[in-house]
Queue: 2 jobs
Job 1
Amino acid sequence: MEKTIFSGIQPSGIITLGNYIGAVRNWSRISEQGKGIFSVVDLHAITVRQDPKELRERILSTLAMVIASGVDPEKNLIFIQSHVSAHCELSWILNCYTMFGELSRMTQFKDKAQRYADNINAGLFTYPVLMAADILLYDTDLVPVGVDQKQHLELARDIATRMNGIFPKLFKVPEGYIPSVGAKVMSLTQPEKKMSKSDPNPKSYISIIDEPDQIMKKCRSAVTDSENRIAYEEGRPGMNNLLTIYSAMTGETIEAAVARFEGQGYGAFKTAVAEAIIAGLSPLQQEYRRLMADPGYLRSVYTRSAEEAGAIAAKTLARVHEQIGFVGR
Ligand code: AQP
């Protein structure tokens, strides 16, 4: 049986190297195993205030970046979340089967509530329920995500299992797919924190469309330590992060990379990390520019994908309505 793979990305900034290594580039890899359904999750993005003009542009550029990262739109669906209203409809139903205490334990909520203390809205709190709806609507088998989304994915599984206990076989319980290297790429300026596309300091992240000289500058100024020794060791988050990025971009193991740079200084190492990123992103950047010059094509991808995704989602929603006791239309 063909597997269904679902994942999403928020248009809350430009896709970073963290999003790319931890999630998006794996979308095309694992979609070889079945049908990929990928979404630019704009409904999630508005849990934080967005500028409308910028948001609209970013939704389209994020879609182009996903395609440029290797997800084939002929074989997979790549749609805009707000174009399939079943996401909100199922989300409401799941809200009624999710406990306040469960949502209060979500670390992303706690982090974001601290960061956006003047806007702790209900959407920020129920964000994981919408994410559960995204996944469960498609009877998803596999969800490729970075490690920061593991807790949300566990919650989606818990909600599905709980509802299956009341309404037999209502949902397929999904599995996560988390890469072995690069599941949590760290900030370049504060390596104890994860790299995030909405970080107000652009030096903290590399966006996948950064120019080569920007990538070089950001890598060369990345925070490391004063040991001046290249090794992957406990307590050296900056060094470990650069080795992880190097390994993820070249395919070389961390051990082999450590051996390659033995005896070299941080300057040479950081330059090599930057060169590996520049080389790895160059084809993607060319494809991205080509796609952005063709808005008609992007439109055809998201329109067709939303139609197909909407048809699958409508069937799941009808099954849920039927089992929980709603009257059919
Ligand atoms: N630093 C990271 N390393 C590895 N994977 C990461 N992901 C995010 N950051 C890293 C993975 O990227 C996918 C898309 O993420 P998202 O857009 O749904 O939201 P997020 O996890 O909150 O990512 P950001 O970049 O930190 O966005 P903002 O700044 O808006 O909150 C997910 O699979 C995620 O695991």
Job 2
Amino acid sequence: MTDYSECSLTRFPAPVLSRPAEPVGEIDDSIRQLAERMIDLMVQTQGVGFAAPQAGVNLRMFVVSLDSTRDNARVYINPELDLSGPTVGHEEGCLSLPGIYSQIQRYGRCTVTATDLEGNRFTEEAEGLLARAIQHEYDHLQGVLIKDRMSRPAKVRARRRLRQLLDDYNETDAAS
Ligand code: NI
């Protein structure tokens, strides 16, 4: 059994954040432990969602809780998305890109079909903030970050902060 209890938050430019994640196989104790760990990290950092690559794990699962509480956390394993328009712009941040906030265009509605921790497939209709959070987390499973969806001027404004994150990462790497 893979031990996921010590997973920690990964930040850009960790390679796991920019590659497509792999489907989850059997939902066993290690997957349940990973979900617990992801919820812990989301609650600690007051995020509204958390994807497995953000815990350094290359698997297709994420959690969402719009009020950042454990009670309202929902787990989505091997999710499929059906998007419907129109698109709406709203400010987003990402725990893996600290200090970067930008208007991001998302579809107003989506239908998500996913597996829960009991292994049951479920379908959920989402709109507004929930639809946005689901699309943001789903992007993580595709290796896509908000920096990849920002407008060109926003990218220019974020350039210094992105450079700083790259430098911090390289320093940590060199130190370890
Ligand atoms: Ni994110």
